Amino acid sequence: MILCFLVCYRNGIANSGAQLHQGALNTVTRAPLSFFATTDVGAVTSLFSQDMALVDNELPISFANLALDACNAVGMAAVIATASPYLAIAYPPILGILYLIQKFYLRTSRQLRLLDLEAKAPLYTHYLDTIRGLATLRAFRWEDHGVDKNTELLTDSQKPAYLLAMIQRALMFVLQLVVAILATSVVALATQLRTSSALTGASLVTLMTFGDVLNYIIRWWTQIETSIGAVSRLKGFSEKVPSESTCGEEEVVPVKGWPFRGDMVVDNVSASYSTVRDLNDPSSNICNSASPAETLALRDISLTIRNGEKVAICGRTGSGKSSIILLLLRLLNPLPSCRANITIDGTPLHTLNHSALRDRIITIPQEPAFLPDGTSFRSNLDPYGLADEPECRRALESVGLWSVAQRQGGLHAGLSAGSLSQGQKQLFSLARAVIRRRVRAAKQLLTRGGGLAGETSFGGGGILLVDEVSSTVDAETEEQMQTVIHLEFEGYTVVMVTHRLEMLRGFDRVVVMEKGAIVEVGPPEDMMGRDGGVFRHCGR
After folding, report:
1. Where would you find the membrane-spanning parts of this chain (predicted)?
2. Are the beta carbons of 368 and 429 closer than 8 angstroms?
3. H/E segment holding residue 519
4. What's the CA gap between 208 and 234, in Å, rounded?
5. Quick check: 329 and 513 in contact, CB under 8 A?
6. Residues 447-461, mean pLDDT to the nearest whole number
7. Which partner for 357 in 327, 352, 458, 480 could form a disulfide, CB atoms 3.0-4.6 Å apart?
8. Which pLDDT score is estimated for 310?
């Protein structure tokens, strides 16, 4: 029976922890972009590391140990009382003293434990920032500054743990005083009442470890309280953080083949990475530090892009170029007053399902993403298995990476992202977009009655969004990417964020951004010849 209980107990704890972790993970993956813009990544990391460790490790162990030590304490109290029945009279006052001790200790230790968890969040953030910016730190010789900051954060993170250890020692001291009172009572009663020396000896021997047991009971109880707090934080995180799908008014899946033309209209739209609640709440930190207008990432954006038009978005860093891409993908939500002012082929974006919208629009991000090392070339190139092997090979040939795949063993060989240069990674990401374009073209051809999959001259009406793919590549790779985009995506509506003027060859219009607003729009040739223009200044 005991064995069955332990097995069920272990499985129950494991399943509970897995469900809490899955719930928190689902919340993170479905959270809107405003959540990541306003939430410290260290706090989220601490939730998955520190809080989950409490749930998976500390909570079951503390609960089991509390039950065992409580039974042990009851038995010890009975043995101690055998020296003299009159000693049992002292138990109620002693229990009252222990209650007051644990009440004071519990409140203090619980707060210190919470401070311990919170103090580690900046340390995790520093670790993650250092890993991401390691090349920059070394280039500017900021290693010493990073080490000093790490030491400072590490010292701050250990202060609550040190104070917690100190109050645990204080608890031990107080409990030993209680045990000393009991020992004095046992000896006094034994000498005055002349009870059995054997029972008196057993009581005194039991008292030697009774204080430790009481100490452990209070500590296990405190640990359970802290662990339950971790459970509460995980559940609160899953319940309070809004899902991206709840931020829109409707969730409509576009009809098959949408978008048919690729016409895009953005009419007087403003957007912010902060939540709408933060912008309207006068007590929020955002409104205390800046006016709502200053928190806007995009201000009064009006832009009409026709079917098949190729538009480049230029501007300085932080001008809002990439924010337009995020706006078209519904990663960045506009303000409620202008939510219906963004349309593709006449369909308001705020009525569309997020996943379906992003599935219908082909996007090439600035930072290419890869599956874990060892995953095959084909799985990285076509994760959903939409194309056959010959199509995957032709896509790699179109961007000049087939020879790289051949040297490593072909499409089914394992791919390590570290084996590719930054330019090759961008070309690989472009090959993914080529496959999606060709698969879409093949479906259109089959729907219209015939054609060959992979045909490059058909399949217009789609949309391609490109976010600064040339920022970390050389001139040769940039030229190759430009050629592939113009050949493969003929007839597509292309919106490209770039800071290199060389990438503007063949584009119909240039949109110049500054401080989240559009300041200039026009053909690139006219913009370059405009005296005093912002675009011409960017070109210098």
Report:
1. 73-101, 170-191
2. yes
3. strand 517-522
4. 41
5. no
6. 52
7. 352
8. 92
Residue 1 pLDDT > 70, yes or no? no
Secondary structure element (H or E) that encloses residue 422, with its range:
helix 422-448
Location of structure tokens 């409580």: 70
Strand partners, 522: 510
- The Cα–Cα gap between 157 and 176 comes to 30
- Whole-number pLDDT of residue 302: 92
Q: Which amino acid is at 163?
A: L
How does DSSP assign 466-490, residue by residue?
EESTTTTS-HHHHHHHHHHHHHHTT
Q: What percent of the chain has pLDDT over 90?
A: 20
Q: Across the beta sheet with 347-348, what order do the strands follow? A: 296-305, 264-272, 342-344, 347-348
pLDDT at residue 347 is higher than 80? yes
| Alpha-carbon gap, residue 42 to 13, rounded angstroms | 26
Contact 175, 101 (CB under 8 A): yes
Q: Which structure tokens are listed for 215?
A: 């100490």
Other C-beta atoms within 10 Å of 513: how many?
A: 25
Q: Tell me how crowded residue 375 is: count the other CB atoms within 10 A of its CB.
A: 15
Distance between CA 480 and CA 466 in Å, rounded?
15
Residue-averaged pLDDT of the chain: 82
The predicted model gives 91-112 an average pLDDT of 82
pLDDT (tens digit per residue) in 293-320: 447 889 999 999 999 999 999 888 888 8
pLDDT score of 292 more than 60: no
Contact 426, 481 (CB under 8 A): yes
Count of CA atoms in the C-beta half-sphere (13 A) of 151: 6
CA distance 215 to 210: 9
Q: Which residue has the tokens 């040769």?
A: 476
- The tokens of 528 are what? 């370059």
What SS3 string covers 19-54?
A: HHHHHHHHHHHHCCHHHHHHCCHHHHHHHHHHHHHH
Residue 9's pLDDT is 66
Two tokens, residue 328:
């078209």
Q: Which two tokens stand for residue 116?
A: 């311990």
163-202 burial code (b ≥16 CB/10 A, e <16): bbeeebeebbebbbebbeebbebbeebbeeeebeeebbee
Sheet arrangement for strand 463-467 = 362-364, 463-467, 493-497, 310-315, 509-514, 517-522
Return all residues near 41 (Cβ < 8 A) that are at least 6 apart.
124, 125, 128
pLDDT for 196 equals 67
